[in-house]
Structures are given as C-alpha cells and as structure tokens.
Amino acid sequence: MKKLLEQSKILWIVIVLTNLSFSCKEQIKNEDLEVAEISRVEYLPYYDEASFTPNWMTPGTEEERQFHKIQEFKLWNQLGDVVTPNTFDDKIYITDFFFASCPGICPQMTGNMFKLQEEFKDDDEILFLSHTVTPSQDSVPVLKNYAEKYGVIANKWHLVTGDKQEIYNLGREQYFVENDLGEPKSIEDFLHTENFLLIDKNKHIRGIYNGLNRASMQQLIIDIKALKEEG
Q1: For the chain, how many structural domains are there in total?
Q2: Is residue 123 located within the same domain as residue 223?
C-alpha cells in the first residue's frame, strides 16, 4: 500500500511539472507573438532580381528613386482599353500571369485574386492586373467573358492581352515571376507561375506571394495595408 501511495505521488508530481512546462511554453509562445506584432519592419523591402533577395531602403531617397521599376508596356484589357504604366499612376497594384483556358491552378489563382478584389473593392488606391500568357488565344472578347464569369470589376481589375514577346519580357525581366533561376528561357518556353506580386505607387516590386496559399494571401493583405501607410 505504501509503495502504491509513493507511486501515486510521483505520478502527481510528473503531471504538475508537465502542466507547468506546457504553461511556460504557451506563455513564451504568446510573448513571441506579441514581440512579432510590435517588431514589424518600418518599410516593406524592395526587389530587383529573380532570387527575390530583399533590399532595405527608405522610401523617397535617391537610392529608392534609382531602384528597379516596372518599365513601359502597352496592353489591352477586357474592355478593349489600352493599359500602360500610367494606368497605375499613384496606385498600388497586385499582378499575376494566367490564361483563360487553364484547367489547373489558374481558376484557384483567379478565385484568390477575386477575394483580394472584394477586400479592397472600395479602395481606389488598390488595383489588380492579370496578364494572359496565351495572347493569341485570349483575345479581348475571351477576356471579357472570363471577367464576367469570375466577377471581375471593370477598371478595378484589368485582364490584359497583347504582344506575346512583350508579356513574356514583362514576366521574366521586369516582374521576375518564374522560379527557374539561372535557366535561360525563350519565347517558346511557356510562362506559367502561381506567384502574385505587390507593386507600389512608384512601380517598385515590394512583395512576392504564392497565389495558391491561404497564409500567403493573408500576408499579402497585411502588406498592402502596410504599403498604404507609407503614403
């Protein structure tokens, strides 16, 4: 009987110590989360090449003004209107690449872009830009039908077509959307990526996100709001 009582005491002590350990871990975890919330970076990083190594700088400086920007382009949206960088003057925009007949990841990406559109539907500072990678198939009428199918708001979210070389150059040399580092690509190599990019009002790349990942989409929403705070 005495042995049984001693075993019970030992078991009780183990349970108490285990609970104390768990409680301490939870406290540490919560403290870490609080620190993470208050130690956010002052400004989002800037990106200028395919490895997406972050560059830290202060907006408005000469260094920032000379940094990589999205260059000139001329494309046509689902309404047949011309879309150029001027379309996004003084706007933050989120961009991706897709094609209307894609049976795989594109509908998921479009669905997630739609959720972003709904999140910022009443915010005139936020626009969306989706480039087709099969412009010979995705004419203006095709894009218009696609827009109607997926609830795209005209002039809020531009689905664009145009010259294939120009679109592929934008994707690979301006937005750096593909993950195949160091592999040379030609116009014959298909451009397809699940990445979304966040572009600031000065045409700088400020973030890259997996357009199929829920956590990544939540981070994108946070980053859009942070970018708005930069002014």
Answers
A1: 2
A2: yes
For residue 156, list its beta bridge partners: none
Sign of CA pseudo-dihedral 95, 98, 100, 102: negative
For 197, the 3-state DSSP assignment is strand
Q: For 115-150, give the DSSP string.
A: HHHHHTTT-TTEEEEEEES-TTT--HHHHHHHHHHH
Classify residue 224: in a domain, yes or no: yes
pTM confidence score: 0.81
Give 63-109 pLDDT, tens digit per residue: 999 999 999 999 999 999 999 999 999 999 999 999 999 988 999 99
The parent domain of residue 8 ranges over 1-39
**SS3 call for 37:** helix
Distance CA 197, CA 211 (A): 9
Tokens of 72: 């000139």
Q: Do the Cβ atoms of 105 and 194 come closer than 8 Å?
A: yes
Containing 166, the helix (H) or strand (E) segment is: helix 164-169
